[in-house]
Amino acid sequence: MKLDLRDVTKVFGTTRALDELSLQIPEARVLVLIGPSGGGKSTLLRVLGGLEVPDQGSVTLNEHRLNADPESLQAYRRRNGFVFQQFNLFPHLNARRNITLPLEKVHGHSPEAARALADQSLTRFGLLDHATKLPSQLSGGQQQRVGIARAIAFSPEVLFLDEPTSALDPEMTAEVLELIQELAEAGQDIILSTHEMGFARAVADQVAFVASGQIAESNPPQALFNAPVSPVCQRFLSRVMRY
Amino acid sequence: MTRRQVIANAVVAVILVAAFAVFCTLVLNSLGRPVDWSKAWAYRESLWRGWTVTLGISLAALLGSIVFGLAFLLGQRSRLPVVRWTCRGFLEFVRDTPLLVHLLFGYFVIFAPLLSRPLAGIGWDDKVLIGIVLLSMFAGAYLGEILRGGVDSIPATQWDAARAVGFSPFQVYRYVIFPQALRRVLPAIAGLFVSLIKDSSLLNVIGVSEYFYNTKNFISRSYAGLEGYLPLTLGYLILTLPVAWLAHWLERRFRDET
Ligand SMILES: Nc1ncnc2c1ncn2[C@@H]1O[C@H](COP(=O)(O)OP(=O)(O)O)[C@@H](O)[C@H]1O
Ligand SMILES: [Mg+2]
After folding, report:
1. What is the pLDDT of residue A203?
2. CA-CA-CA-CA torsion for B213, B217, B218, B222, nearest 10 degrees?
3. Residue B209: what are its φ and ψ, rounded to 5°?
4. Average pLDDT of B171-181?
5. Is A43 in the pocket of ligand 1 (CB under 6 A)?
6. Does the domain formed by B42-257 have CATH 1.10.3720.10?
7. Beta strands A64-65; A56-61: pairing state
8. Contacts of A181 (CB under 8 A, 6+ apart)
9. Does ligand 1 have an atom closer than 6 angstroms to the CB of A39?
10. What is chain B's mean pLDDT, rounded?
11. Which positions in chain B touch A88 (Cβ < 8 Å)?
12. To 10 degrees, the CA torsion angle through A34, A37, A40, A42?
């Protein structure tokens, strides 16, 4: 995938969540965003995912230049998948229905075809036995895997994940990270934010360090983790790597 | 229950039944004249017609209130401030004035002068129609408020998730927000619909010959008492209890689901 952000600004009240952020990435399969909490990772992902419209600046992902028009933004969201930190499954629908409903209503699949696709991804993620359970009856790790299954069921162009394991305990974190790595190895284009530095290093082919609403540094993982150039990134890494 | 509670429960039950029996005996003895069901039987056609009119008005106003309620909900969520404020002002006015006033004022001052002739011209009963509209608007104002509360109670994360999978704004409401919001406000809606059925009796003030109006006529003409009020009470219970039961059943089903 190809990414081009120029002077992107997003203001909430008096907070400049994104502050003239620019980033050019000519080619990457997996882009990982790291950085301190409140630095703007979620906001950046929401802008990239078409869930938030920036106040200023231009965003181009592959061939799509994002604009503020609701219809074209909706069309853009239809092509991409989004996974949230808090899973955000639809609590009134069971695991399978969470996946089939968008397939039927958004992508126009027949109920049979949608079911076949859903069961395919549920099987792939080891969730078929839980297909008829409601989200509240699933563990956090299972919910997040359903969330990922829902986001990739229609083969999205790009998969966005916002801290997909931050609400999970270590064991569940591992099962979800494994799954994301599998997707990456299968060729899925991914942009994700995470606090799991080991995972970022293993899975990314480009890492961007986001702080104060800007990209302080963007490099391949070896370079960024072994020899960070910006002082903020050096300080951040030395702090998180200490333990 | 423990053994003692079982015994206490039985004792209290006997006491309550006895008290009720004494009360009924006292009331019946003080009536002065025997209860004569043949009076009610003689008026059965008028009473039956009134009951069917009440049923029809209730059903129509129920549908009407849903239309108004949805309109008020959307109005309150409009992007245009002027629409939001007009809507809020109107809702506040409707909810803070008596239905009786809406019916008298709305019928005699506003709608009858405007609509009676054209409606009579096409052979429609203007009282029933205008009564239904006014009742729908009244219940719709409450429904709009209940629905708004329900929709507002759905967390922003659900809107995000619904938009993220690519739903259109209509689909977001249809598949994600409404199903969840309705579960939360169902008891309130059932209560509102029960009230609506009962409030349809107020239409007698504009001369709609519904169940209460016809029963009142029967009572005053034949000097009936119990023979009139007992069927009146039962007639409304037959309409309201199924609504209440349906609501309880749905509520339990949704509770088990989550
Ligand atoms: N919807 C919002 N309303 C107000 N402030 C927000 C909102 N979203 C994010 N912010 C603020 O923007 C800044 C960046 O937040 P965020 O993008 O969530 O950072 P991160 O994901 O890196 O922790 C924070 O200061 C946060 O408080
Ligand atoms: Mg975040």
Report:
1. 95
2. 160
3. -85, 75
4. 95
5. yes
6. yes
7. antiparallel
8. A199, A202, A203
9. yes
10. 91
11. 157-158, 160-161, 164
12. 80
Flag whether pLDDT at B257 surpasses 70: no
Nearest CA to ligand 1 atom 12: A17
With beta carbons less than 8 A apart as the criterion, state whether A237 and A223 touch: no
Q: Give the B window 139-168 contacts with A, CB below 8 Å.
A: 157-158, 160-168
State which amino acid sits at residue B233.
T
pLDDT digits (tens, 9 = 90+) for B177-223: 999 999 889 889 999 999 999 999 999 999 888 999 999 988 888 88
Is pLDDT at B85 greater than 70 in this prediction? yes
- What pLDDT sits at residue B62? 95
pLDDT of residue B44: 85
Nearest to B71 by CA among B132, B135, B144, B139: B144
Find out whether the beta carbon of A46 lies less than 6 Å from any atom of ligand 1.
Answer: no
Helix (H, G, I), strand (E, B) or coil at B10: helix
Nearest Cα of chain B lies from the Cα of A103 at a distance, in angstroms, of 9
Residue-wise pLDDT for B33-62, tens only, equals 777 788 888 888 888 999 999 999 999 999
* Number of CB atoms found within 10 A of residue A33's CB: 27
Determine contact: B207 vs chain A, CB below 8 A: no
Whether this model's ipTM surpasses 0.90 comes out as yes
Mean pLDDT of A45-49: 97
Domain spans in chain B, listed from the N-terminal domain onward: 1-32, 42-257
Token readout for B183 is 């579960």
The whole-number average pLDDT for the span A16-37 is 96
Contact yes or no for A66/A60 (Cβ under 8 A): yes
Q: What is the mean pLDDT of residues B67-91?
A: 94
- Interface check A88 vs B, CB under 8 A: yes
Asked if the model's pLDDT at residue B258 lies above 70, the reply is no
What fold, for A1-80+158-243? Rossmann fold (3.40.50)
A90 vs B163, B168, B176: nearest CB: B176
Quick one: which atom of ligand 1 is closest to the CA of A44?
Answer: 17
In order, the DSSP letters of B15-35 are: HHHHHHHHHHHHHHHHT-S--
A133 and chain B: CB distance < 8 Å anywhere?
A: no
- The pLDDT of residue B123 is above 80: no
Q: Domains of chain A: which residue ranges?
A: 1-80+158-243, 87-155
Q: How far is CA B63 from CA A155, A212, B59, B153, in A?
A: 42, 53, 6, 24
